[in-house]
Every structure is written in structure tokens, then in C-alpha cells.
What does this fold into?
Amino acid sequence: MSSLAVVAALAALLLIPAVSTASSSQLNYRPIIGILAQENIPGDAHAQGSSYIAASYVKYLESAGSRVVPVRINRTYEEYVKIFNSINGLLLPGGDVDLQKSQFSRVSKIFYDLAIKANDALDYFPIWGTCQGFQQLTVLTSGKNLLTVTDTKAVALPLVFTEAAKNSRLFKNFPKDLLQSLSEENITSNFHSWSLSMQNYSRNAKLKRFYKVLSTNADGKKEFISTMEAYRYPFYAVQWHPEKTQFEWIDKPGMVHTPSAIRASFYAASFFVSEVMKNQHRFPNVSEEEKALIYNFTPVFGGLSSIFVQNYYFD
It folds into this structure.
């Protein structure tokens, strides 16, 4: 048995995803992932400053062995370039902002363009999009908003895997029993009113060339993409919410806290962190790194009936 096969086997036994890289000596075991902030939710009684990041995304990445830097909106292009060269990957979170006119969309495009350029130059820089982040990536790639309304505002669904899923970077190291749970149980949380339909994806050449569809779902009328990854770039997108399972507790339909759902969340986070470990960006010095980390900010508790249990707020 090869060494990689041994690692994969041990990972399956330990319920830990195998890291898919050529050599452990090339890995960055002190990864830092940026999470993009976005404009505050209108009517948020706890809001401070002008933007926020839900704490569940921070915990989600930290649970898999990464540190987090908040990427704040309303900064200059030069500041974003400096941050890009200091972090090892980017997460675009869920939310509800304009995907073409918001500050969230402006900054997303800056990092998307920087990541394309970096990866083309063999500087491996992963991006993950969740829900709104998924949708934002489709807009950035196609240059259009091709989303359509679906009845998926608060529902848990099983994934309908495509043939491409079994050999995908994202899913190929998931244990078989977990993939079975994902395909048979209602464990992926959906909280979105807009989706990329298979029909709109198939009609757009840019999206078809760029992204491989790994899973779909349907609301009873429309089939939409629920998971995808880029062919040439380490870009990943899920329309569902793996972070909610472990770290959000509002009592409403679509929220799932079963053991299989928690395992799926952990495997998704661990996969992305394993990708980010392949990046070697560093802050110029320890002092700048310390100042940038999320530890400098205090999350605000919004109550158990809040959409997000805790939020970080920024000027």
C-alpha cells in the first residue's frame, strides 16, 4: 500500500479527512483564512459599525485548524493586495447583499481577480463560497446575475450527487458512509431564496467551462446546483450551510444537528483548510499578523432567536 493510501485509510478510521498534497513538508501548518465582511443586516438591533461577520464562520474554520482574519469592507485596493499576500485563502460567507453593487461584491471581485492571477502563476490560493458566497462566485465568473427564485428558504435536503462528485477534490476523501448519509438524509441546511438553476448553468458557456457540478437539489419545480468546484482553480462553492450545523441554534426548519450532519460540516471545513495549507503566504512580521487576527475583536451575542447567535461587527 502506498503512503498516500495509508494516510487516506487512517484518516477514514479516525474520521479525519486526508490532506491531498504531494508532500507534508510543503504544507503550511499555521494557515490563516480571510473571511469577507458585508454590510449590516437592516434592522439588526445589535449592529455596531457598518459591517459584520457571523461568528459561526469563524468557529467553523477554527474547528478545522485555521486562524481567521476579518477582511473588512470600505478599504483601498492597496490594502486588499497586502491582505491577499498575507493570508492563505478566502471564505465568502452567506448573507443578503446586492451581488453586483455592494461593497461585499466589490471586494469579492478584487480577491477573485487576485486569486485567478496568483493561481495562474502557480501560487495556490483557494476560495470557498457558502450560500451568498456561492452566488457571488457565479456572478464573478459569468459577469451576470443568472440566479432564479427557488422555494428553499428554510429546509434541509439530501444532496443529489453527480458522476463528477466521486472523483472531485472536495468529496473524494469523504468516508463512504458519510457520502451515503449526505445523499439519503436531510442534513444540508438551505436558507436561500435564490439559486443557480441547472438550466441557467447549462446555457452559460463561462460557467460550464469554469465549474464542475458536484451535486444538485430541487425545490419540487426547479433543479439547482448545490455544490460545485472549479476545474482549473481551487475554488469551491456550496449553496447549503455546513457552518450552521455546529454553531447556529435558532429553532426553525432547516436547522440540523444530527451526528451525520456534524461530521459533514467537519469534513467540509477540514477539506478547505487542507487546501489552504498548500498556500505559503505570510504576514510581513508577527506584529502585523497579531493585529490582523479576529482575536482582536469581541463577538456580540444576539440571542438564541437571532439568525446568527453571535456576530463580529466592524467600522
